[in-house]
Amino acid sequence: MALLEVRDLDVRFALRQGEVRALRDVNFTLDRGERLGIVGESGAGKSVVAFSLLNLIARPGHIAGGSIRFDGQELTGLGERGLRRIRGNRISMIFQDPLMTLNPVLSIGEQMVECLKAHRRISRREARTVALHKLQQVQIPSPATRLDQYPHELSGGMRQRVIIAIALLLDPDIIIADEPTTALDVTIQAEIMALLRELCEKHNVGLILITHDLGVVSQVTQRMLVMYAGRVIEQGPTREIINDPQHPYTQGLMNALPQMATPGSHLNQIRGSMPSLSQLPPGCAFHPRCDFMHRADGSARHACAERVPDFVASGNCRVACHMVAEMLALDARPAEEEAR
Amino acid sequence: MTTLTEAQAQHVASPGSPPPLLEVRGLRKRFSLSGDFLDQLRFKGGRLVRHREFVHAINGVDLAIQRGEALCVVGESGCGKSTVARTVMGLISPSAGEIRYAGERIDRLSPKALLPYRKRMQMIFQNPYASLNPRMTIQQTLEEPIRLHHPDWDRRRVRDKVTEVMAAVGIEPDWGGRFGHEFSGGQRQRIAIARALAVDPEFIVADEPISALDVSIQAQVLNLLMDAQRERDLTYLFITHDLAVVEHFGTRVAVMYLGTVCEVATTATLFATPRHPYTQALLSAIPRLEDDRPQPIRLTGEVPTPVNLPSGCVFHGRCPHAEPRCRREVPVLRPQADGSRVACHAVEEGRL
Amino acid sequence: MTTSTPAASRWQRLRDSYLLYSFKRDWGAQLCLAILLALVTMALLAPWLAPTDPYDLAQIDILNSELPPFWIDGADTRYALGTDAQGRDLWSIILYGTRVSLLIGFGAVLLQALLGVVFGLLAGYLGGRIDAFLMRLADIQLSFSTLMVAIVVGAVVKATLGGGFYSNHAVLMLILIIGLAEWPQYARTVRASVLGEKRKEYVDAAKVMGLGSRRIMFRHVLPNTLTPIFVISTVQVANAIISEAALSFLGLGMPETHPSLGSLIKAGFDYLQSGSWWITLVPGAVLVVLVLSINLLGDWLRDVMNPRLYKG
């Protein structure tokens, strides 16, 4: 059984304009030690997934349905006390802005000791030793002196390393990293990502990496989800999706990258922009921007504008797209006839 | 004259080439960190001394931009690339050095004398959420520069011009009465580009124009900028941290580190054969989609603060090829056989 | 591109705004606004609402002095709220007094805002020496209380132009005094938000365009600092009305022949012991209700317009 199993997750926000469905029909699993990427543009709902896993959705949002099972335990109905035993302890989070997580008036060492003592029966001295050990694991130069430093004395890259050390402090089963390197420079980002990947491999920790950067996902994760307007539209092994994306949105996203085009040529842009969650178009949310809305003979693909597509299996991937479903059906027919 | 600056040397080297549209020589900018005079007084050894600290944002930058090209300045945060852009546009006055536009010095002009240049040079900003005045409609935003630079135009002509630039950047003509906050980031950036194009400039400084946007929108805006260049014969100074964008967009690239230019080359040359160790590390760190790429070059250490600049080569603390000379002596940009210019002792000595 | 909807009109924008939305849900704010509007209307319509003209000596009869309000024995039906020590109808004189108080309150705030906005804008946008000079000036101004300004200005005016001039132009003098004494509040608020706006890229964009400093300051920066100006204005009006009342109570404000709420309270104060409490307490109650409703409205406005609570 998978370590983490998310079924039909449905998150809603009660806003002035009415109820907005921030997430719908989100399904995925994470095995022990597996690295999963969640990719999407801003507003796709990828951060909402991260927050809802630990039930950190603040009002006016709430989990309206679905289940999140972690190690056999259901998390959605769990009370604050039960969640606290899991948060930080068995599932820890890394945020984009390290300064949001670090308390500016406490030294790094104090924060790490506090965190350990909150979850474990451990003496101050032992806790300090554990903290030092974790700082060594994240390859911080001169870790002993860092323990007594304050967050503002560290550079951005260093702070993010400290955050990773804190995330590892209680030997969690899963680390959720929400855009952990977006605020950092490329060279630092490469280091942090390599470090995160190494640590997860070495300690058999599951990783959920949330990012907008397809390159990062491709480098770090084994499986990935692509999200659009609050839904997962494609999921499967990272390499297969990167090498052969099925969903028109994933294709468009990848082809829009400058590294995919000949220098100086026109980039393949996706027209328009993501709809706001309160004004989703009917049917497939992507259809107004989709190049395949019109068939080769010029007729419109009515299903796209009318029905929300179901997932179809394509190889090891699952794709929610009418066009892909039609193509698969066409491919399958001769095989069926042969079988007859 | 005993020492030629790099820009002059280049000039001498190629007398046949046309003069650059924009030329920056020996540009330096430092920002005071120490407040006003009273804040600077300190007691030291029983005496009152004036203590001042500076951020050395740019330390001697030479750049020349030829008409029609897109020069990309690339580097990580704090390398001074945005300061270069803002100094060129006269938003910051340089501490030393000179800026020439079409041969004329523009860094010491009065606002009035600068006005004709404002029409020829325009700027596009990073954050489309802050670069449009929230209290002005799109129509007002776009009309303002036209009215300023063409005081003799009548209402009709101004309106026609606004309609023209709106069409050029692909925004609907009936958006004019609405305010910036009603639009998405990509649409706002289009409006900001329209504002820059409204006075028909020939030179545009773009300071990270796509880094605040989503991937699918980045492509739209890059395409728009490239179309505008083709149709309007524009010259760009393009500031970015994203090397993938540079490879696609740039004619030439200048790589900056800690306020100095460490390598200048044509885009093709730079991406095929990066010479400076920093450029190499930067290139290897781009997260690529392919899985068979080599491991990124891991740099050790941290970027030093621009307050206390390291001695010698600014990169020596993180450079895998640093030698004692690098700690002592500041390298200068030297022309290479492939036409690029690199500021590195190791390259000069043939070690790299 | 996106579906193009026509631009919303000003009225539509107001109707869809968060301001109106939260106003509709806050009965406290509605009540305060209703009371304030009622008081302002009453003050504006004083000449038509008041049964007598308290400024007209011919209509005053000293024999009618100290008549109690209607719910007390011995009241005269002609004077619903009773009369004061000079025999003036209290209802009429409160209407006129509120008018004077509101006039001074709004007038002083207008002057404060004018001075404060211009100085704050210059200090914040131009910075450097101008900033240092103007802000030190504000500090000095703040170290004088309104009372001291009133005494000094009063003394100077009386000495040079005569006491008659001062009491003839008391409204103008009070506007001047309260306006001069409290402009630094505005200057500081405006300066702080100008410093915030100045860093935004639309100001850089305006500079790159070639616009002059004056146009950038007034056309681009100022409209974006209006929200905090609006918010502190409510509190400042309440403060100015209180200041005026305090000055009048001390005899530095409106003369008794042309009373404001403050001078009415003072005039009645001497009769508080002799049992004619209404002469002081009724105008006092009006003053409290007026100031309270303005302040509560200001609090609500600050909560609603606080950009940290509502991003839009």
From TrEMBL, chain A:
| GO-annotated molecular function | ATP binding; ATP hydrolysis activity
A cellular-component GO term for this protein: plasma membrane
Q: Which CDD domains match?
A: ABC_NikE_OppD_transporters (cd03257)
As for subcellular location, the record says:
Cell inner membrane
Q: In what way does this protein cross or attach to the membrane? A: Peripheral membrane protein
Gene3D superfamilies this protein is in? P-loop containing nucleotide triphosphate hydrolases
User: What is the reaction catalyzed?
Assistant: a dipeptide(out) + ATP + H2O = a dipeptide(in) + ADP + phosphate + H(+)
**SMART domains found in the cross-reference section:** AAA
Coiled-coil regions in this chain? none
- Residue limits of the ABC transporter domain? 6-254
Q: What's its EC?
A: 7.4.2.9
> Which NCBIfam families does this entry report, sorted A to Z?
oligo_HPY (TIGR01727)
Task: Please state what the protein is called.
Answer: ABC-type dipeptide transporter
UniProtKB/TrEMBL annotation, chain B:
Keyword Zinc-finger included in the entry's annotation: no
Sorted alphabetically, the Gene Ontology BP terms of this entry are: peptide transport; transmembrane transport
A GO molecular-function descriptor: ATP hydrolysis activity
Q: Which UniProt keywords apply?
A: ATP-binding, Nucleotide-binding, Transport
Task: Report the Pfam families cross-referenced here.
Answer: ABC_tran, oligo_HPY
The lineage's top-level taxon is Bacteria
* ABC transporter domain ranges (all copies): 41-283
Its family remark reads:
Belongs to the ABC transporter superfamily.
By its UniProt entry, which NCBIfam families does this protein fall under? oligo_HPY
Query: What is the name of this protein?
Result: ABC transporter ATP-binding protein
Q: Which organism is it from?
A: Halomonas heilongjiangensis
Q: What is the lineage of its organism?
A: Bacteria, Pseudomonadati, Pseudomonadota, Gammaproteobacteria, Oceanospirillales
From TrEMBL, chain C:
Segment forming the signal sequence:
none
Protein's membrane topology: Multi-pass membrane protein
The keyword Repeat belongs to this UniProt entry's keyword annotation = no
> Where in or outside the cell is it found?
Cell membrane
List, alphabetically, the Pfam families matched.
BPD_transp_1, OppC_N
Name the UniProt key words of this record, in alphabetical order: Cell membrane, Membrane, Transmembrane, Transmembrane helix, Transport
Instruction: Tell me the Gene Ontology biological-process terms attached to this UniProt entry.
Output: transmembrane transport
Query: Which cellular component appears as one GO term in the record?
Result: plasma membrane
How is this protein named in the record? ABC transporter permease
Q: Which organism is it from?
A: Halomonas heilongjiangensis
